[in-house]
Design goal:
CATH architecture of the largest domain: 3-Layer(aba) Sandwich
Helix content: 25-40%
Largest sheet: 6 strands, parallel
Shape: globular
Structural class: alpha/beta
Number of helices: 24
Strand order of the largest sheet: 5-4-6-7-9-8
Number of strands: 23
CATH topology of the largest domain: Rossmann fold
Strand content: 15-25%
CATH class of the largest domain: Alpha Beta
């Protein structure tokens, strides 16, 4: 057996460079590079390996470990899980900074390979700088915190362990049902140790993504339920994208006359112009989709986690005899809400079920009802897009979204994650083609947006179109480190900061449940009241972004925003548009409800009233 003497770090890179995935006979290189921030724990291990022979894997310098991992998540999401970046960090805080990103990846079912440095396996220098000593269990380091947020976790304490660890890591990363964050902890001494690895370990390896069929018996049962239904509604989740099932979905909906509502992850599976698309579903959904959901006697979910924003905390489906069918590669998801589980691939499953249904189609009356509701919602979108500002201090948030939506082309991509913007975008954004809408809303992680824009730009490296990052001022302030990476690497993104002076989405949530508004706006402390209710803090986002090297624009009106978009599109460098937006100019819920914990005892009469109202709505929830 031929062997190659390499350090653990060198062997890991050589292995990563030769991993490929195959879907529908199409081969894709799986690992596209490495994000990293060096420190003790990885600089003399993986750092050395990347410096002297990275086997064609480009290295990108991150500027915050969480941020660079978010960029890797966005890259994999935009690639429909057919490509990833690895992320390496030092030990201690460098490693734990990636825990939030690991949770984001796992919650979203997105592959993410994390390579945090770890403390010395030999223990002789202990305690090293940044080491957490756990007195009751000395095998634990801070990297054990990755265990609950990883789909696979391993610690390489001997060089030869790398081989089984890598195979198990890629088993999970390429598993459509089990993918998420994978963490391989790399003690800093072991990274630099060498071993005579067998040559075959580094051979080109093909990981085949199989389209698992749904069993015939359960398909027949599902077909019978659909034939009996008079008002079925299909909910398209992110799994439609990851299965490359958008065309299959369109054909299924057209053939059988079933309206399609979309989750945040599923949005753009059908363009808004498709006659069967009735918009977003749930708490941030359209009136059309939510009315159809309330009256549906059958819900057919495809590739969704059925989280509370999709189901309106299990309040949305009000028909007394409603049935649930769920097509999903993950049986855990497919059984939610007591669904008839169709475990299998979304594309293949839709084609199988359609073949059994034959020429079945919903009634003309129901199809016309869906069409009328959709048209009414289109009129509502037009209304929100055309609201003029009440003052000269900024734009109406929905009008700004409308202007951008009309300006953007089918090749452009928008990215967002948190605040009030996801709700407005889910309701109002009119997608032109699949993958032009990129929302991280499983974890709704503040700070994902700018890093996500970089990841999308890397995924679109050879594709036309702009990448627009839509981010609230609160989320931008929380984390925008990879703005510098995009400038450094000349990977252009356009960041639009919706400046409304704070966390206005959560302020609205407070006030809807009896609060007067507390701690959610960016204000100075008032010396008279000793509360944060003084003047707004004046933040010059342009000056800050410009100092990093971005081209900046300030906009307060429709004309200045339009001009900024035109000039930003002409530019070849990363741009930041600071857009003044009036607070409380976002959309509201349509025929929906979201359950939050309201104080059972309060000094506020308004909170007490909100608690009673919450209890009344809980009584309407379907219990599973």
């Amino acid at each position: 057996m031929k062997t190659i003497q390499l350090t653990v770090a060198q062997a890991l890179l050589r292995f990563l460079a030769n991993q490929y995935v195959v879907l529908d006979q199409q081969e894709y290189r799986f690992v596209h590079g490495v994000f990293g921030i060096f420190g003790h724990g990885n600089v003399t291990g993986l750092g050395e390996a990347l410096e002297y022979d990275a086997y064609g894997l480009p290295y990108y310098q991150g500027h915050n470990e969480q941020g660079m991992a978010h960029a890797a998540i966005a890259f994999a999401k935009q690639k429909n899980r057919l490509g990833i970046f690895a992320c390496t960090s030092s030990i201690g805080p460098g490693a734990t900074n990636m825990i939030t990103a690991a949770a984001t990846a796992t919650t979203n079912r997105i592959p993410l390979l994390l390579l945090p440095g770890d403390i010395f396996s030999c223990r002789q220098p202990d305690p090293v700088l940044q080491q957490l000593e756990v007195e009751h269990d000395y095998t634990i380091s801070v990297n054990d915190c990755f265990k609950p947020v990883s789909r696979y976790w391993d610690r390489i304490t001997r060089p030869e362990q790398l081989m089984t660890a890598c195979l198990n890591a890629f088993r999970v990363l390429t598993d459509t049902a089990q993918t998420g964050a994978v963490t391989l902890c790399l003690p800093q001494d072991v990274q630099a140790e060498s071993y005579a690895y067998p040559e075959h370990f580094f051979a080109k390896r093909m990981w085949h993504i199989n389209r698992d069929p749904v069993s015939q018996q359960v398909l027949e049962e599902a077909a019978n339920l659909l034939r009996q239904a008079k008002q079925p509604l299909l909910i398209a989740g992110g799994g439609v994208h990851y299965s490359l099932a958008t065309q299959a979905l369109a054909k299924f909906a057209e053939t059988h006359g079933i309206p399609v509502a979309e989750t945040q992850a599923g949005k753009s599976a059908l363009p808004w112009g498709h006659p069967n698309n009735v918009g977003g579903i749930g708490v941030t959904g359209s009136a059309a989709a939510n009315q159809l959901a309330a009256e549906a006697d059958l819900i057919f979910a495809v590739g969704s986690r059925l989280q509370d924003f999709t189901t309106a905390s299990k309040w949305a489906f009000k028909h007394p005899e409603v049935k649930m069918i769920h097509l999903n590669v993950n049986r855990f998801d497919s059984l939610k809400m007591d669904s008839l589980s169709l475990k299998g691939d979304a594309k293949y499953g839709l084609e199988q079920l359609s073949a059994i249904l034959g020429n079945y189609k919903t009634s003309i009356v129901y199809q016309e009802k869906s069409r009328v509701l959709k048209q009414a919602w289109q009129d509502e979108i037009t209304k929100w897009y055309s609201i003029p500002p009440k003052t000269t201090a900024g734009m109406h948030q929905t009008s700004a979204i409308g202007l951008l939506n009309q300006f953007a082309t089918a090749q452009d991509v928008i990215v967002c994650a948190a605040g009030s913007l996801p709700g407005d975008l889910h309701r109002l954004w009119c997608s032109k083609q699949p993958k032009d809408y990129h929302l991280e809303y499983a974890y709704s992680c503040m700070g994902y947006e700018v890093a996500g824009g970089l990841g999308i730009r890397l995924a679109k490296e050879n594709s036309p179109g702009e990448v627009y990052v839509l981010v609230g001022d609160g989320s931008y302030i929380m984390l925008h480190s990879e703005l510098l990476t995009s400038i450094q690497e000349k990977k252009k993104i356009t960041v639009i900061i919706f400046d409304n002076h704070g966390y206005q989405c959560i302020r609205n949530l407070q006030e809807a449940h009896g609060s007067k508004g507390f701690g959610n706006e960016f204000r100075y402390r008032n010396p008279e009241t000793e509360k944060l209710d003084g003047d707004y803090i004046a933040i010059d986002f342009c000056q800050y972004a410009g100092a990093l090297g971005a081209k900046t624009f300030s906009a307060e009106s429709e004309d200045s925003f339009q001009s900024a978009l035109v000039e930003a599109k002409k530019s070849t460098q990363t741009c930041v548009i600071a857009l003044a937006v009036l607070p409380k100019t976002m959309t509201y819920g349509y025929q929906t409800w979201w359950r939050v914990g309201v104080a059972e005892v309060s000094q506020s009469a308004q909170v007490q009233e909100a608690y009673v109202g919450m209890c009344e709505e809980v009584e309407k929830v379907r219990v599973y």
